[in-house]
Write a structure and sequence with these properties.
The chain has about 220 residues and is of the alpha+beta class. The protein folds into 2 domains: about 40 residues; about 150 residues, Glucose Permease (Domain IIA) (Distorted Sandwich). It contains 3 helices and 14 strands. The strands form 3 sheets. An 8-stranded antiparallel sheet has the order 9-5-6-7-11-3-2-13, with no helix packed on it. It has a 3-stranded antiparallel sheet with strand order 1-14-12, with no helix packed on it. Helix 1 runs antiparallel to helix 2.
Length: about 220
């Protein structure tokens, strides 16, 4: 069997090269301990920015998980920031050991992208959703259902990457961005969406089905 290379998110290459260069420089200077630490950092950063392939569910009504991690919130609420109405909110917390590449949950056309600078509370704290830096992408499915996926920075995460642009039509499971070093992703869906996961369940980006859109829409 042919050995495959581990795919990496392109945003990680500057960090990987910097750590590798620092390790090489320490080696040339004969700094054994520093070289060892540099090699460990290079290995960790390379592993952190891994971007494995995923098998996307062939189900047009499915809401596919946008991030690796653990489900920390499933609740109905009134949303006055993104969809302006009653919504179902599902939140996934990513720790530093999860894959951090984010994927689109459901086929849709990007209507709006809203970036808001903010604080950096721990991403599993509810204050994070209200006060942390975030990037919200609002999309409309071909049948006109609107939903929003929000990348939220965390205590360690200091950089949100969003490659989507208004007007883009993006398929479910397609990569569209990432958050560096620990964070969360919030999904705002119609309130009659059927939830398929449970609190504290571990989920995988691009593979786990979080919910199904109502068949009446």
């Amino acid at each position: 069997m042919k050995k495959q290379h581990l795919p990496l998110a392109r945003e990680g290459y500057p960090f990987i090269f910097f750590c590798a260069f620092a390790a090489l420089l320490c080696a040339l200077l004969g700094l054994t301990a520093a070289t060892f630490i540099g090699l460990l950092l290079t290995t960790f950063v390379t592993w952190f920015f891994r971007d494995p392939s995923r098998v996307i569910p062939d189900d047009p009504a499915a809401i596919v998980c946008p991030a690796d991690g653990r489900v920390i919130i499933i609740k109905e609420m009134d949303d006055d920031r993104f969809l302006k109405g009653r919504v179902l909110k599902i939140s996934i917390f990513m720790n530093i050991f999860n894959v951090h590449v984010n994927r689109i949950p459901c086929l849709g056309r990007v209507e709006r992208i809203l970036f808001k600078p903010g604080k950096f509370y721990s991403a599993d704290n509810e204050k994070a959703a209200l006060h942390n830096e975030y990037c919200a992408v609002t999309l409309a499915t071909p049948s006109g259902i609107r939903y929003c996926v929000v990348q939220v920075a965390g205590l360690i995460a200091r950089r949100i990457v969003c490659r989507a642009e208004p007007g883009d039509t993006i398929a479910a499971g397609r990569r569209y961005g990432l958050i560096r070093f620990g964070s969360r992703v919030d999904l705002y869906l119609p309130p009659d969406t059927k939830v398929e996961v449970q609190l504290r369940q571990k989920v995988r980006s691009g593979e786990t089905i979080l919910a199904h859109l109502s068949p009446d829409k």
